[in-house]
């Protein structure tokens, strides 16, 4: 792969990853509630499914999803339902109490396994990612070069970029909590986050391919 193609591929993946969506919303939420350091567990959950989605898209599932509206809609509705469920849970949870040391609170002790699985479920609930990978990868494959090295390069580069974008949102969430602690508006955080998750779920449910 030429350096030019590599840069174009990296920029494409970065733009797609950094755009606000369910996974980035989860990163922001966990960054606010648990701190950026613990949110690494969520990022790893996101990354594991991102790798899987990229692999299955190359294996042909992306084409199947494009061809089968029923299968696509089933996956989409499962993801939308989970996002709405998370939004309701967050909305109804006790008000987030912020202070000058927000990550010394009891809710910061959420099990890392639970955070990892939330990263897994939110990422897995978006079938559009598989379609995206199926559309992007062929544009950068060099038919005159070995396939496996190219595949590993795509996967490795995409993984680093996806993880970095997730953590950018997590760090941003941690900074937001510090700001909220000074502004004394912590009681509105759960409803804002919960409402956004519900909105994201509804948006996914009503969206077209």
Could you characterize what this model shows?
With 209 residues, the protein is mainly α. It has one domain (26-206). It contains nine helices and no strands.
What secondary-structure arrangement, pairings included, does this model have?
Layout: H1 3-18, H2 22-34, H3 40-59, H4 61-67, H5 69-92, H6 112-124, H7 128-140, H8 147-183, H9 189-206
Helix pairs in contact: 1-8, 2-6, 2-8, 3-6, 3-7, 3-8, 4-5, 4-7, 5-9
Structural shape: globular
Question: What count of helical segments does DSSP give?
Answer: 9
Quaternary arrangement of the chains shown?
single chain
Largest sheet: none
Uncertain runs are 102-106
For the secondary structure, the number of strands is 0
Count of folded domains: 1
Order of helices and strands: HHHHHHHHH
Summarize the structure.
The chain is mainly α and 209 residues long.
Keywords for this structure?
mainly alpha; globular; 77% helix; 209 residues
């Amino acid at each position: 792969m030429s350096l030019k193609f590599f840069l174009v591929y990296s920029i494409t993946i970065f733009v797609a990853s950094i755009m606000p969506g369910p996974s980035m919303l989860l990163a922001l939420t966990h960054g606010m509630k648990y701190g950026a350091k613990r949110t690494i567990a969520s990022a790893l959950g996101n990354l594991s499914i991102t790798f899987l989605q990229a692999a299955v898209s190359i294996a042909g599932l992306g084409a199947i999803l494009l061809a089968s509206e029923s299968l696509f809609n089933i996956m989409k509705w499962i993801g939308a339902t989970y996002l709405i469920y998370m939004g309701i849970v967050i909305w109804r949870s006790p008000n987030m109490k912020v202070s000058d040391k927000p990550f010394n609170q009891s809710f910061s002790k959420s099990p890392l396994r639970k955070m990892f699985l939330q990263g897994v479920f939110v990422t897995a609930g978006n079938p559009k990612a598989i379609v995206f990978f199926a559309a992007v990868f062929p544009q950068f494959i060099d038919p005159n070069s070995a396939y496996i090295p190219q595949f590993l390069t795509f996967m490795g580069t995409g993984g680093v970029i996806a993880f970095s974008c997730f953590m950018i949102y997590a760090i941003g969430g941690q900074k937001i909590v510090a700001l909220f602690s000074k502004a004394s508006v912590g009681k509105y955080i759960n409803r804002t986050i919960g409402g956004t998750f519900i909105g994201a779920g509804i948006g996914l449910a009503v969206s077209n391919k």
